[in-house]
Design goal:
6 helices; five-stranded parallel sheet; 139 residues
Length: 139
């Protein structure tokens, strides 16, 4: 096991891809802490606010037996402030970050404090972006 694991994310329109990511992370660590990114950070980085407000996303995540703790993540791609708050040993991300410049920066910053980044396969069939687009065109 990997001690404390951390999974940051928006977790908007919670779907099967989110669940698979949390299941995989749970298998890899003793304690799983999930970070729910603030509405403001989502808007700044993605150009839109989440459909589900932060308080509700936190409540959904906290209700899952896979999750030991939920924290509010007010950071962008720099996760050093969250490492200082949580003290995790491994950070889990979808593999859409792997091999990218932002993934390389994340890996280097985590390695500097002795934490690892572990990537899991990104779920392409169902994503929050696809669900959001469906809602916008059919809602």
């Amino acid at each position: 096991m990997n001690g404390c694991g951390y999974v940051p994310g928006v977790w908007d329109l919670f779907h099967i891809g989110h669940l698979k990511l949390l299941r995989r992370a749970r298998e890899e660590c003793d304690v799983l802490v999930v970070g729910a990114v603030t509405d403001e950070v989502v808007e700044a980085t993605k150009g839109h606010r989440p459909v589900i407000p932060l308080a509700e996303r936190v409540e959904i995540l906290a209700s899952l037996s896979l999750v030991d703790d939920v924290v509010v993540d007010d950071c962008t791609s720099d996760k050093m402030p969250m490492w200082h708050r949580v003290g995790f040993d491994v950070l889990f991300k979808g593999d859409d970050w792997q091999g990218t410049p932002k993934g390389a920066v994340l890996e280097a910053s985590m390695a500097a404090v002795g934490a690892r980044v572990v990537y899991f396969p990104y779920t392409h069939g169902t994503t929050s972006s696809i669900l959001r687009q469906f809602i916008e065109t059919h809602g």
